[in-house]
Known about the structure:
Blueprint lengths: L3 H5 L5 E6 L4 H11 L3 E5 L8 H14 L3 E4 L13 H11 L5 E5 L6 H10 L4 E7 L6 H13 L4 E7 L3 H13 L3 E6 L6 H4 L7 E4 L12 H11 L1 H7 L3
Parallel strand pairs: 1-2, 1-8, 2-3, 3-4, 4-5, 5-6, 6-7
Helix pairs in contact: 2-3, 9-10
Amino acid sequence: MATLRERLTGGVPLVAVSFGDDDAEADAARAREAGVDLAELRIDWYRSIEPGDVLRAAAPFRAAGVPTLATIRSKAEGGYWPADDAARLRLFEAVLPVVDAVDVELSSAGILPAVVAAARSHDRPVIVSYHDFDATPPEPALQATVDAARAAGADLVKISTMAHGPADLRTLASLLVRNDDMIVIGMGPQGAGSRVFFPLLGSRITYSAIGGRPAPGQLPFDQTVYMLSAFSPAYAAARNPA
């Protein structure tokens, strides 16, 4: 079976679903049954952030053969992490051996180099992410963010901004087609189409929901899969191999 790193560079987008720790066994089984490409473990949503409890919540996904992305999102970028960055770094280091990739914000400058180094030591891809829940900055500013994330060691750069209309989607689409190894998302109702059509332009991962806490404009998993399969023969073939 291809590794997550290989799949991320294979030209076929992946559909991710975010999960907390309410019922890891049931969520892992549901993810496997539905054919979720990538389970984002939103550790900042977890009821307990003790490393042992976090590892136990991750284990069912590994046992089910569902690739995992560990995200411990800071409050500064829309997350719920309740402790300091030192504790967050320790938790990243604890989970890296049992997950397939990690996501850390460019703005988390205090821990970003150490998270990248730890991921490198375990040969795990690193997503360096940037979120703007209010607006879509101009393309030159976004390009500067992409360049900074690359310089920090990103394997993939994630840019997620609030889209208020077609002009914002054009900005994001232009950024996407000018750069490789990107995840680009327009949030909000005006950006919902980006979650289906940007993967056709090369965005590596699109995020969807199965219950849980959908992000602004996020579509249900089955709807995302249906539309991607309709518009992307490569995705349809990968999902239903002959």
